[in-house]
Amino acid sequence: MNKAKQSLKSAIGVSIGITLGGAVIPRMVFPKLYNETYPSLLKQSVLYFVVSYIVSFSIFMLIDWIKSRLIK
Hints:
Blueprint: H1 2-29, H2 41-71
């Protein structure tokens, strides 16, 4: 259970970074590239955060599982 808590905490930082680098910063730097066809910044940020959080958590758990199998 300790590994799951550690993976949850680690995934937060990664997902915040992906959200900032993938949704927020590009929209602020290049506002003319995003027109009405894109979702609002809030929707896109939430989507990026949730998806990257799930993927990051899964990868951290997979890495911990592989480490535990190799150490034995």
